[in-house]
Amino acid sequence: MTTAPVVHHEMSRQEGDNPVVVFEHVSIGFEGKAILKDISFAVHPGETRMLLGPAGGGKSVLLKLVDGLIRPDEGRIFVFGKEVSSMPERELLQLRASIGMVFQEGALFDSLTVGDNVAYRLIESHVSQDEIDKRVLEALRFVELEQTVAKFPSQLSGGMRRRVAIARAIIGKPDLLLYDSPTGGLDPITSTNIIELVMKQRDVYHTSSLLITHRLQDAFTLATNQFNQETNHMEPIEGKGGDLNTSFLILNNGNLVFDGSTHELVTSDDPFIQDYLR
Amino acid sequence: MPINAIDNAAKRGVLSIQEYAVLSARAIGGLFRKPRYLGDIFTQADIIGVGSLPIVVLTGFFTGGVLALQSASSLEQFGATAITGQLVSLSMIKELGPVLTSLMVSGRNASGMASELGSMMVTEQIDAMRALGTDPMKKLVGPRVIATIIMLFFLTILSDTVGTMGGAFVAVFMLGQDGSQYFHTAYQTLQYPDIFQGLVKPLFFGFIISTIGCFYGMTTRGGTQGVGRSTTQAVVVSSVLIIAVDFVISRFMIGLFGR
Q: pTM of this prediction?
């Protein structure tokens, strides 16, 4: 297995920390149409990178590439230093034990209860029933849905399904979390609740993450707020820089047009970015 | 350009065959690797086997009945109605039992597999399963293939039995034939190659039904419309393949055993 090279990234961080995710000149297309073109970036430990861009720009494809669910046409992808772009499926299945993924519509198994959905990874790993019960309750308590353990996904609202999906993604205590539009199609209040959960995971467990969102408001809420464990709510970060471990990637027409911090984003003089943020 | 359309259709066809071969090979290969999903095999056996019992029993009974009815009316012209049982049992065990049972199971289960897996595909549940570290080929496809092959084998035996009984019912109660003569000729005419032929076929047909159903399910694209399309294609393709493969196996068996 090839070892990941350390890609330079303009963020303050400890020296010597190896990136969790590295994209090296990655391109992919479907049916002759290029979806991602020569994409290179890195996600470092404890970092939250928000992926913005117009719909149909290849954001979900990028996230699936990170998890090895699809393979690139060109370029290399490293996750935890291992090249996933050429890894056999059997090894990928093992690697995914360290990755949690929240799908666009939750993708809960509709034939299983909420409890079994959340416990799925543990059941497949033959963890003892006592341990499963304890961890399912812990994960559902994190998303404040412990009362839904015996319900089926069809009995839940859209926002509740996303929260269950987050519980399912974090139950294995992953080192990397991938969120595919966790607030897509939800009302503003529910969206803020979901963003608060993402923030809680970021600030309490310091899990590296990649998050797609179409809502700029959610992205800036995440970048400019922090989770207060005492009040169990988010609060604004003092100063202009926002959260130093939260930064942005912007995709447009398959090209990575921005890779930088919140401050760099809001002060960018790129016409597309200015237009996009307006 | 028409030539481009033909070219693309040919490429899509070859690609589908390749994908089907890969799916089948991975499903078979998965049987020899851990983890093994015994619970899922029993669940699928219940859905496919026990769930198909009513249609298989009804189809078998009425097929046997109509065979007796038609054979007797033709045989009457030659004064040979005594061999009605022989015709019914041979036709049921060698051909109609395996083929009709498979077509019934295909209509019920190939469509069920394609729609269930197709729905899981379009709602990203298959991707979620992979993301959670489970191989869908082993968890979803493998148990369906094993369960269909095993259950179709037993369903065929049941269909053969019920079909012969249906023929007996018609022969005795509607045509006034002698019951013991019917069963005697039905039994006497059978030889091991006939039974072997009739029991080998469901193994192939079970494989066709499950792999085609799973293949169309796992390659579903395009939302709910795509699920509908996959379901229809799974039933059509598996039914045609069953009849085509039946011809090939019959020819091979006749070549091998001479009957």
A: 0.87
